[in-house]
Specification:
Elements lengths: L1 H5 L6 H15 L3 H14 L4 H14 L2 H17 L5 H12 L3 H14 L5 H13 L3 H9 L2 H6 L5 H13 L3 H5 L1
Helix pairs in contact: 2-3, 3-4, 4-5, 4-6, 5-6, 6-7, 7-8, 8-9, 8-11, 9-11
Length: 180
């Protein structure tokens, strides 16, 4: 929506994608039909980051293995095409995690962290989750150790991070520390 407001040109691919979402909703199209239409818009406009992000999100909404694979491919391309943007990396991590590709997701969390050093908590939470799935609770706890005070200060907001951290500590036999 922001891309359309910033550049409301007639041939704006973001506007075309939003119109497609509205038309698909009105027509009662399936998620697969919508993502197919969005993919055509993206293929015609591969440099459109808003269209890329929307298409990836719609693939992830479908959630099956093939759709996650498509999302992973598009997000990886986005990481390369937009080397300063955070969103393609976040979407790549999400798609890889949904696919159970934990080692790859962990690698992309490092890129995410590098692109957003002032706001690394979300990347570190994703890294810790991947570490847990890879049976590396020491690494998971280490990834979040520097954020514990922030997470405890707002436990409702950071419930997932606190849960990951405590799970890592419990798996390390540090139940006392987890309870604190």
């Amino acid at each position: 929506v922001l891309a359309v407001a910033q550049d409301p040109v007639k041939d704006n691919p973001a506007l075309a994608a939003l119109k497609q979402v509205a038309a698909s909703s009105k027509a009662g199209d399936s998620k697969a039909q919508l993502v197919s239409a969005l993919r055509k818009i993206l293929d015609a406009n591969p440099q459109s980051l808003p269209v890329r992000e929307l298409t990836i999100r719609r693939y992830l909404e479908i959630g099956d293995q093939d759709s996650c694979q498509q999302a992973t491919q598009l997000a990886a391309q986005g990481v390369q095409m937009f080397p300063t943007e955070i969103e393609p990396v976040q979407l790549e991590v999400q798609a890889l995690m949904m696919s159970g590709r934990w080692n790859e997701a962990l690698g992309y969390t490092k890129i995410w962290r590098d692109r957003a050093p002032a706001d690394s908590l979300a990347a570190d939470m994703a890294a810790a989750q991947a570490d847990l799935m890879l049976h590396q609770p020491d690494d998971a706890a280490s990834a979040l150790a520097g954020h514990v005070a922030t997470m405890k200060a707002d436990p409702d907001k950071y419930a997932d991070g606190l849960n990951i951290y405590c799970t890592a500590l419990n798996q390390n036999g540090q139940q006392d520390k987890a309870a604190a």
